[in-house]
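User: I'm curious whether this sequence folds into something compact or stays loose and floppy. Could you predict its structure so I can see for myself?
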Amino acid sequence: MKWFAKYLTITFIISSIGMVKSQEIKRGGIDQELLKELKNSFNKDGKTKAIINAATNIDPKNLMLNRENIGKTDHFFSNQVKVKGITNQKSSGRCWLFTSLNVFRPKVIEKLGLEDFEFSQNYLFFYDLLEKANLFLEGVIATKNKDMDDKTVEWLFKNPIGDGGQWSMFADIGEKYGLVPKSVMAETFNSDNTSVMNSVLSRKLREDGLEIRDMYTPKVKEEKFYKRKVEMLSEIYRILVISLGEPPEEFTWRYKTKDGKLSEPKKFTPKSFYKEVVGVNLKDYIMLMNDPTREYYKIYEVEFDRDMYDGQNWKYINLPMDDIKQIAKSSILGNDAMYFSCDVGKQLNTNDGYLDLNNYDYESLYGVKFGMNKTKRIKTFDSGSSHGMTLVGVDLDKDGSILKWQVENSWGADKGNKGYLTMTDKWFDEYMFRLVVFKKYIPEKILDILKQKPILLPPWDPMFMSEE
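Assistant: Here's the prediction. I'll summarize afterward.
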């Protein structure tokens, strides 16, 4: 048959119920013959009619919720980090920032003997956005002579700024700008509800980026681009101050202990507060990853995945799940919370904050099989890390085997199990991706992997979206 024919047909042999027969496959669009075949394949019996009636009138998730799985677990844990209070990121993509700060919140509460405490997420958010704006403009200047359809240029203009992120971004801005209590720089409407502000900032940066590219000729001196960049950043700073307020350079703070004792007022800068109250080197925390699509026991670096021009790219050690679990278990037993990220939307029963592989039965409702493993889900963009939370609990049986895990979420105390989520160990295997752990809990042979030269990966890799 000629190449320009409407359909390309080939003959092949198939086996069906022990019989062998030939059949034609038609390649191309859906014609009336194929449509008829598809309709005939649909068995509209009484059960299917009942399913259609239900599924077209009810939220399918309610129909897929596996009743046999409800009430099969408890929310008690044999080992928990001593934490207090639940935070709320509201309508923002700042889970990574809340999660990072929640790693240190229990330490401050214990150190000062407080009833509760919360850092200002808004303070670091301000500088995160300012640094991201600068990083974008620097990226545009560096690629100003490349075509707009160049992969890096395209990625820059698609992602000029946003409120998503991950641990290494927190580590950079925290060490550079310090930390402050929430009472010193409270949340605003725009920090709680970031979509409009993000849209405004993105539009302005794209406009600025095009201007920089239009300025380019081989004869234009580099100083001209950087002078204009500073003028552009001053406008971004203005938008941020109007939206989030201006960060303090110094402040006076006092606190009351859980025993009712009032401290003396003390003057701090954000950096002195960080040093005195937290006093931890953020670079002593190591990111671990479970990515079965890549070789284990290697260190990887994600190009351009940072929020500061002079900051560190996202680096991680890729490990098998068994290694990660043992490290996580040791940290919890040592009363140290961890930054944790996962594909939280998969098999989450939001009614009680329970994550289990059997929560939702897709196959029974639709009558089709779903069989991808973790590797296949990553490669096809079906699964990836979407949300950061703080890992705080592990439940062990009498032999020390892991039964389930607990995370402190940042969706408010009215979500999940009073603000916490419980996940089975099997769910952890399938949908956990990243963990950041204090290095003292990591075996020396794994820390030695940091001496390797990192394998550089592109920022558009399917595994490396920011947590929100």
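Summary: The chain has a mean pLDDT of 91. The first helix runs from residue 32 to 41.
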